TrEMBL record, chain A:
GO terms for cellular component: plasma membrane. The keyword Cell cycle does not apply. It comes from Anaerocolumna xylanovorans DSM 12503. It is a multi-pass membrane protein. This is Lactose/L-arabinose transport system permease protein. The lineage of its organism: Bacteria, Bacillati, Bacillota, Clostridia, Lachnospirales.
TrEMBL record, chain B:
The keyword Transmembrane applies. CDD domains: TM_PBP2. Its main location: membrane. It holds the Pfam family BPD_transp_1. It comes from Anaerocolumna xylanovorans DSM 12503. It is found in: Cell membrane. Belongs to the binding-protein-dependent transport system permease family. InterPro entries: ABC_transporter_permease, MetI-like, MetI-like_sf. This is Lactose/L-arabinose transport system permease protein. The chain crosses the membrane at residues 16-35, 73-96, 108-128, 158-184, 205-224, 266-286. It is a multi-pass membrane protein. Residues 74-287 form the ABC transmembrane type-1 domain. Gene3D superfamilies: MetI-like.
Length: 269, 294
């Protein structure tokens, strides 16, 4: 009986935590369809203001530009980041020697540098190069991260050396081994890395806030933050901007959730 | 050795290709992290406003010690760190060990639901919580419906800090839970079953099996969350705007304000950012030492 009671308690606990986790998102989705006063008041049923909230948003904010910028920046950053970091992680592990291990150890130190330390020098560097308000300024600083290199290095550790030797005998060159053998076998690591990078790129707020100063170059999180500005806040409009900002990351989340856990499993071994 | 005359031996060729593979990533980190890092340090030794800067030695660092605002934001940041990180990690660990139970039903639903907050961006969830906790918002409506007086969440410094902590726990618990679940995959489930047969309680399996074997993962999540909390920015700006007064403002928020609003003082904010770096380094070192001993 005690054991049974405990098990029931466990389900109750998990259910409560699950509801608390989902509730704010449900509130946000309902909020996008209600008028401002109802959002604040906590109306928890879908309303009929979806279209008018959306119209207010496109009237007051440059939604199409922000959405396009976010999609473009995050996609390009993710592709470049995955390519450059995975090939480096692979290189560090497969061809490792004392020199490369030392370089890796030094690169890991970069994880310690808070963004606040480098944001002003980066800002001055990019304004010197006349790259303020450009995608380059957003993407370049975040393509290569020690975390991703480490993730791919860990997964390369489990990549059998026999495959490499066999491929070499078959006449595949080193680049070919990486692209034709390593990438296809490490799909779950790539999925995990993609989730982390895309979400990070999409959600980044501080750096875009600094370096994107025109209304045409802003990204979605900046747009959401701007929707809050002013004395009167239209919560319906705010919630629909939050909803639009969340849809792409939610898609990635649901599509890659399982792979994310698998990819991380390889990394935390 | 014979090949040497022709040019490169095979292993030297591979070695060079290896360097080629890691070159782009290495160069990017050098130019986008280390180089600006060094520049940031040089900047921290300069005083003045805007672009008119002169060498000031350690003046900025001395100023930090005397700055009451710095003390305030430093306190706030550490308050979040000390309260939020342990609660979140313990909760994540408990949830992960519950979900690791093979006999649990609806596992996928629970896992997805608890991980779901990670799909929202930091700015987005800040807005959701801001709206939930406004004076006549949903949370106060619920409180009032129980006949209690409503709370001015963002008007009182402690409740405002509380809202930030609640929001942080909401957003990040599932994320850390997934790391623990992944780590638990590496522990043979039969270990738990054997322990159960030997009469171990769930708490005993948690402390005797899960925590010791998950140590590397716990260390990783502890360092990641410490690092993240010390650099907290989006929530401070968007959820509470740092208020009331500066009661919820974080270090990064203050550094941002010093650099990019009104009268920019790049040198002083660079010096403050180096304080964060030193703390991050010290705490990471301490955590690794503590993690090693157990």
């Amino acid at each position: 009986m005690i054991r049974r009671g405990k098990r029931v308690l466990q389900y109750v606990f998990l259910t409560v935590v699950s509801i608390l986790s989902v509730f704010p998102i449900y509130y946000m989705i309902c909020g996008a369809t209600n008028k401002s006063a109802d959002v604040v008041g906590g109306r928890l049923l879908p309303g009929s203001y979806l279209v008018s909230n959306f119209q207010n948003l496109i009237l007051q904010q440059n939604l199409s530009a922000a959405l396009w910028n976010s999609i473009r920046n995050a996609t390009i950053m993710t592709l470049l980041s995955l390519l450059i970091c995975s090939i480096a992680g692979y290189g560090f592990e497969i061809y490792h020697d004392k020199g490369k291990d030392l370089v890796m150890a030094i690169l890991l130190l970069a994880m310690m540098i808070p963004f606040a330390v480098i944001m002003i020098p980066l800002f001055r560097m990019f304004s010197h190069m006349k790259l303020i308000n450009t995608m380059t300024a957003i993407v370049l600083p975040a393509i290569s991260t020690p975390f991703l290199i480490m993730l791919f290095r860990q997964s390369a550790r489990s990549f059998p050396h026999d495959i490499i030797e066999a491929a070499r005998i078959d006449g595949l060159n080193e680049m070919g081994i990486f692209f034709r053998m390593f990438i296809p076998t490490m799909r779950s690591t790539y999925a995990a890395a993609m989730t982390i990078t895309f979400m990070g790129a999409w959600n980044n707020y501080l750096w875009p806030k600094i370096v994107l100063q025109t209304n045409n170059s802003i990204t979605m999180p900046v747009l959401v933050a701007n929707s809050m500005g002013g004395h009167y806040v239209d919560y319906g409009m705010l919630m629909i901007s939050v909803l639009i900002c969340t849809i792409p990351t939610a898609i990635i989340f649901f599509a890659l959730q399982k792979n994310f856990a698998e990819g991380i499993t390889g990394a935390v071994k | 050795m014979q090949n040497n005359k022709k040019g490169l031996t095979l292993s030297r060729k591979h070695n060079l290709i290896g360097w080629g593979f890691l070159l782009p990533a290495t160069l990017l980190i050098v130019f986008m992290s280390f180089y600006p890092g060094i520049q940031g340090f040089l900047l921290s030794l300069q005083v003045g406003h805007g672009m008119q800067l002169t060498f000031g030695g350690l003046k900025n660092y001395v100023r930090i010690l005397k700055d009451p605002v710095f003390k305030e934001v430093f306190f706030n940041t550490f308050f979040y760190l000390i309260i939020q990180v342990p609660i979140m990690l313990v909760l994540a660990l408990i949830l992960a060990s519950m979900l690791n139970n093979k006999h649990l039903r609806c596992k996928a639903i629970f896992r997805t639901a608890i991980f779901l907050p990670c799909a929202t961006s930091l700015v987005s969830y800040s807005m959701i919580f801001r709206s939930l906790f406004t004076t006549d918002g949903l949370v106060n409506n619920i409180i009032r419906s129980f006949g209690m007086p409503s709370v001015n969440w963002f008007g009182n410094e402690w409740t405002a800090r509380g809202v930030i902590i609640i929001a942080l726990i909401w957003r990040w618990t599932g994320y850390n839970m997934v790391f623990y679940l992944a780590g638990l995959q590496n522990i043979e489930y039969s270990v738990y079953e054997a322990a159960k047969i030997d009469g171990a309680s769930p708490a005993q399996s948690l402390f005797r099996i899960t925590i010791p074997l998950l140590k590397p993962t716990i260390l990783l999540t502890a360092i990641m969350s410490t690092n993240g909390t010390l650099q907290l920015f989006d929530e401070s700006v968007n959820l509470t705007s740092g208020g009331p007064g500066r009661a919820t403002m974080t270090l990064s928020h203050y550094i941002y304000n010093t650099s990019f609003t009104n009268n920019p003082n790049f040198g002083y904010s660079a010096a403050m950012s180096f304080v964060i770096m030193v703390i991050v380094a010290i705490l990471a070192f301490v955590q690794m030492k503590v993690g090693d001993k157990r």
